[in-house]
Amino acid sequence: MSDPVRRPWTSEEIEKLKAMAGNHRREKIAAELNRGAPAVALKAHQLGISLRYHADAKASTTQSAPGR
Fold this sequence. Notes:
There is one protein chain. By secondary structure, the chain is mainly alpha-helical. The chain has a domain at 11-56. It has 4 helices and no strands. Helix 2 packs across helix 3 (37-47). The longest helix has 11 residues, at 37-47. The protein is elongated, with a radius of gyration of 16 Å.
């Protein structure tokens, strides 16, 4: 089996990665960019971008424990 072909990142892909980071899960970003999740994680790390997903505040308040 041969190694997959490596594709250079375009400036448009990098901008989309920056825009989606924190707002979408890693797998969603990878699908949008037509890249694997590990490639997205590596590029984000190289750029110093956090991929930690931040659910919006409204969703987190509706999921709080009963009585809170």
